[in-house]
From TrEMBL:
It comes from Dorcoceras hygrometricum. This is Protein BPS1, chloroplastic-like. GO terms for cellular component: membrane. It holds the Pfam family ROH1-like. Its main location: membrane.
């Protein structure tokens, strides 16, 4: 899954996020200010869950699951905020609506790409099952069949996923719209845009890590900077620095497979391959038997974690999709919204694994 390591292009600047914040003459009622502060304090708490207890955790499927769960909570929070603000249509401009719906479509497309990669990795596990089957099936061509399946595994995990490749351009386009539209004469709009800015930054950060983990390239890792004036800014910057530093350290060591659970399976497969090539053809041989057992356990753990991550990403997909519906209903609009971006063709159907 490795990709050529080109020069890193940091994402250090994305305009002034507080074009959408409180301008001169703006006023937030105590209720609106309390809603905004509560939302941003919640963001800070969600981010604290992503702090690394162990630096080895950063590109593990278990950490990725935790990150997905945090994203689900954050997007549920913004949906609750939309309901609490009770926005009438007069508080919205078409451009704001277009930005929100365009962003949500991009997130749905990113989810589809990640689900596709999870499905591809699960298919790779079939090669490992074939390896274990051949080792337990004493025959004259046991060695040849085992080596063939191991070669198939190696080629599969090193292949490219077109949907994942396209995901990079979607993430880039999402990044380019971080500078949200300027808001005039709408205190509720100010609150919502500032909240949406936080959701967008954290979504981009997590998605860039996932794309990095799945693709085998750190080129698209984002160094997003958030002002400390945000109630969640300090926590975000700490987590971003810690996580990105560890990821770059992992890639600097030249690892081909960076997903922790995938690396364990791959190491186990290479160990079995070495024994078989050396002529240790019988699974009754203790050294090969132990290697096969280790490979079986690693593959089982990898498969289970992939299943759980896939379920979490499906859950995030549904939250984003229902968030669009919540906003549509809450706008109380008769007729069509000008420029509304439809969900992708796959949006209403879960990706079949």
């Amino acid at each position: 899954m490795s990709r050529p390591q080109g020069p890193h292009k940091p994402f250090l600047s994305f305009g002034n996020p507080f074009r959408t914040s409180l301008t001169k003459g703006s006023y937030l009622s105590p209720k609106l200010l309390a809603s905004l502060n509560y939302f941003e304090e919640s963001l800070a708490q969600r981010l604290k869950k992503l702090k690394l207890a162990d630096k080895e955790d950063v590109l593990s499927l278990s950490w990725m699951r935790m990150a997905t769960e945090s994203l689900c909570e954050i997007h549920s929070d913004i949906k609750s905020l939309i309901l609490a603000l009770e926005l009438p249509v007069c508080d919205w401009e078409d451009k704001w609506i277009d930005v929100y719906f365009a962003d949500s479509v991009k997130l749905l497309d990113i989810c589809i790409a990640f689900s596709s990669e999870i499905s591809r990795l699960k298919q790779g596990n079939l090669y490992i099952q074939c390896v274990l089957h051949h080792l337990n099936n004493a025959s004259s061509n046991q060695c040849v069949r085992t080596c063939s399946s191991l070669d198939g595994w190696s080629k599969h995990i090193g292949s490219k996923n077109p949907k994942l490749e396209n995901c990079f351009s979607v993430i880039d386009s999402l990044h380019q719209t971080l500078d949200l539209p300027k808001i005039k004469n709408s205190s509720k709009g100010l609150v919502l845009m500032r909240a949406m800015y936080g959701v967008k930054v954290i979504s981009l950060f997590v998605c860039s890590i996932f794309a990095t983990a799945f693709s085998g390239s750190s080129n698209k890792l984002m160094d997003l900077q958030v002002p400390d004036s945000c109630l969640w800014g300090v926590d975000f910057n700490k987590v971003r620095t810690s996580v990105n530093t560890e990821i770059r350290s992992i890639y600097s060591n030249g690892k081909v497979t960076v997903l922790k659970e995938l690396e364990v399976v791959d190491m186990g497969a290479k160990k079995v391959h070495l024994f078989v090539q050396d002529g240790t053809e019988s699974v009754e041989c203790d050294v090969l038997k132990n290697a096969a057992l280790d490979l079986e356990n690693a593959a089982k753990d990898f498969s289970q974690e992939l299943d759980l991550l896939g379920q979490d990403i499906d859950g995030f997909f549904q939250i984003v999709l229902t968030g669009r519906d919540t906003l549509l209903h809450n706008l109380r609009i008769d007729g069509n919204i000008s420029g509304l971006v439809p969900a992708s063709n796959n949006a209403k159907d879960q990706v079949v694994r």
